[in-house]
Specification:
26 strands; 21% strand
């Protein structure tokens, strides 16, 4: 469970356990090498002592200390990773506040100290249950007779103490526990008494036992056995409660406590329904996927770039073991688009289940989790059947997903090609069966935000997607068109993630899948097909602009449906602003009664073309700054309306300096007017306008409030209302 939900924390825990094992192995080797030296000294009066000390080989004490330091650091890293990975995983379900603040596992010595750490946002974005558990296990908490919790508190205290002592320069040493010292003396000497000394550290020479002989004479032979356990120990702060309470046992309990925290975090997380953020690639950032070819680390020659720019399709391909690199000729020059291999799978027992989760997570991470429908089962006769491996549903378009994962070790290329073709055929049949089922009756499914949504499936236009999960997919596998009423598209999981990462919009991905309505000729060639379509979009002549839109003061804005550059690569902050706005809208509803109608609102907003989002994001960012400069006693507004076509939903975006009953009413009036104006030359019966209002906040809780309103049909404005609204919003004074 830990590896599945918290792979980084699991890795740190494994490294801590490995460091502990290496400490034990090295200590055993040192003991076998006469590390401990002893002496027996008898004084003329017959009194004597048994002593011991450590004869460290050069560098070995420092080596043990570094292993212990590494163990402690990995345990802390595990605890911190539990918090960091929780924040990251749940960021697809809730917007992270103060993302610039570091997240970590807080440990304090007082309630006030703990609250101060929380105030620094160290656990913002984790579950409330996570925070409550961490708070309950703080070392300052009083004993409540719960052995497990007390052990967790004690273990955290040990970690704090060890970290401080190591920082101060303390070294690993040994702990001597005298148990049964023995003394043997030659006649005429007689042993009267032998007494073990208290246990303690062996960082210097230590007396282990004292004895007394009677009738002792000079020259009498005296032999002794220390009868002492010598254990590896970090002496600083070590206080055993019994003979068997060794440092090794103490360290073992601390490692077990950290593992228990990891299990508890994972268990609490598993109780939350919905998607998680996809696991990140290692060593590849988002900014590394789209760079000017002239600045590429591959050092393309000017001749190569010129040849590519002048080629028929302006597209080149280089495939390495860990990524596909496309050379894309655009109007702004030649760019390098890196398509990495599919993201890492989570640690599920079956590869198929891990792939299924990864596919859903990718759609929720780069799209919206609201449109991701997780697999569900329903009764069929005496058994049950699963409704595909998941669905995407955006408005009146849907995608049936079927995933085929290669279990076990791959064989020859011929064998793997045969396996792929067989799976594509089987998945196609399953998709056609699922669509027939969906066309017969509506279904109730749970989306990636954990909400139960009614799917009017028989009214949705469907395509199918078969996703192949293979550790080393065979190249050049030709994909044949499958017979059936529903188009089926074959993709590698890498290509599925490419589409979502490229477009960052579920609506755009689903629209593209419906647009292509079939597989690329070769499995794995989806990125190349995408760029061929993107080049065609860029070269296409913009369609005519609705004259009514121009009459209302609108300006044409032509963008390709499929942009060449990844979404947000021209201005990540602006594009992220739009995603944040969508997340705020998605999470602003309060109850199940609103979930289904809200899907329609989100679908409308997500239909905003990808190529326009950066411009909208810049408008919103600048507007939020601009309205703050409003003069005292006045209200500042910034407004923008967008429509992609006569039959598309109209989208309105407004930013206002204050949120009051008056500004809410004004926003509603503006949206009603803009919706009414469409009805002057069109039938409003089937048209919808959606408006989003942002108003800045200054309390630090969040940056702004988000207000949403949707209007369908005729708003039936009176002449008086129209006159007032036009004076407000359609004159030069507006």
């Amino acid at each position: 469970m830990i590896k599945e939900n918290y792979p980084q924390a699991h890795g740190h825990l494994q490294k801590a356990q490995q460091a502990k094992a290496e400490m034990a192995s090295l200590w055993s080797t040192l003991l076998d090498g006469d590390l401990v030296e002893e002496s027996v000294v008898t004084h003329p009066d017959g009194s004597g002592v048994i002593s011991a000390w450590l004869a460290w080989p050069a560098g070995r004490q420092e080596e043990l200390t570094e292993l212990f330091r590494g163990c402690v650091q990995e345990l802390w890293a595990c605890l911190d990773a539990l918090v960091e990975e929780s924040v990251e995983a749940f960021s697809v379900l809730q917007r992270v506040r103060r993302p610039e603040r570091s997240r970590f596992f807080p440990v304090a010595d007082s309630p006030e100290g703990f609250q101060a750490l929380l105030a620094e946002s160290c656990m913002d974005g984790t579950l409330r249950s996570h925070v409550a558990m961490v708070q309950d296990c703080q070392p300052f908490q009083s004993d409540d007779s719960n052995e497990i919790i007390d052990r967790l508190r004690t273990s955290l205290g040990h970690l704090v103490e060890w970290e401080a002592a190591l920082a101060a320069g303390a070294l690993m040493s040994a702990w001597a526990t005298p148990v049964e010292p023995q003394v043997h003396a030659a006649a005429p000497a007689v042993l009267q008494d032998v007494e073990a000394e208290p246990p303690g550290g062996l960082d210097a020479e230590r007396v282990l036992a004292r004895y007394q002989l009677s009738s002792f004479q000079h020259g009498c032979a005296v032999e002794a056995q220390a009868g002492t356990y010598v254990d590896l120990c970090f002496v600083e702060g070590f206080t055993p409660t019994a003979i068997e309470d060794t440092f090794d046992r103490q360290l073992t309990r601390v490692v077990e406590a950290v593992a228990r925290f990891a299990v508890s975090f994972a268990w609490l997380s598993s109780k939350v329904p919905g998607s998680r953020r996809v696991l990140a690639h290692s060593g590849l950032g988002e900014r590394d996927t789209w760079v000017e070819a002239a600045r590429s680390s591959r050092c393309w020659s000017p001749e190569e770039l010129a040849a590519l720019a002048s080629s028929d399709i302006g597209l080149g391909r280089v495939e390495d073991a860990d990524r596909l690199t496309l050379m894309v000729s655009t109007a702004g020059g030649v760019y390098e688009r890196v398509v990495p291999n599919a993201t890492p799978l989570r640690g599920h027992e079956r590869r198929g289940l891990a792939a299924e989760v990864a596919v859903q997570d990718a759609a929720a991470t780069w799209g919206l989790p609201d449109f991701v429908m997780v697999p569900s089962v329903e009764r069929k006769g005496r058994g049950v059947r699963e409704i595909s491996d998941g669905l995407l549903v955006v408005g009146d378009r849907g995608v049936v997903v079927q995933i085929k994962a290669r279990e076990g070790e791959p064989g020859t290329r011929e064998k793997e090609s045969s396996w792929v073709l067989k799976q594509l055929t089987a998945a196609g049949k399953q998709i056609h069966g699922t669509v027939r089922r969906l066309k017969m009756q509506s279904v109730q499914m749970t989306n990636g935000r954990g909400r139960s949504i009614h799917i009017d499936s028989h009214a949705i236009e469907w395509v199918g997607v078969t996703i192949i999960e293979h550790p080393t997919p065979p190249s050049d596998v030709a994909v044949t068109t499958q017979a059936g009423a529903t188009p089926v598209i074959a993709l590698l999981r890498r290509d599925w993630e490419f589409l979502f990462n490229q477009l960052r919009s579920t609506h755009a991905v689903v629209a593209n899948l419906h647009r292509v309505s079939g597989s690329a000729p070769v499995l794995g060639a989806e990125p190349e097909r995408y760029y061929e379509l993107a080049a065609a979009d860029a070269a296409a002549t913009p369609g005519p602009v609705d004259p009514d839109w121009a009459r209302r003061g609108g300006r044409p804005y032509s963008v390709p449906l499929l942009p060449a550059a990844p979404a947000g690569s021209d201005d990540d902050e602006a594009h992220t602003m739009v995603r944040i706005m969508l997340e705020d809208v998605a999470t602003s509803i309060t109850g199940p009664d609103e979930w289904e109608p809200w899907q329609r609102v989100l679908s409308s907003l997500d239909s905003l073309p990808v190529g326009y989002r950066t411009d909208l994001g810049r408008f919103l960012l600048h507007a939020l700054v601009g309205v703050n400069d409003a003069e005292a006693g006045s209200t500042a507004w910034r407004m923008r309306t967008f429509i992609a076509g006569p039959d598309q939903d109209q989208l309105g975006f407004a930013v206002c300096s204050a949120l009051t009953d008056q500004t809410r009413a004004a926003f509603s009036a503006w949206l009603q007017l803009r919706h009414h104006e469409r009805g002057e030359r069109a039938d409003l019966a089937h048209l919808t306008s959606v408006g989003v209002l942002l108003t800045p906040r200054t309390d630090g809780y969040r940056e702004w409030d988000t207000t949403v309103q949707a209007i369908s049909g005729d708003p039936e404005l009176t002449e008086a209302e129209l006159s007032t609204y036009r004076d407000l919003f359609n004159t030069s004074k507006a």
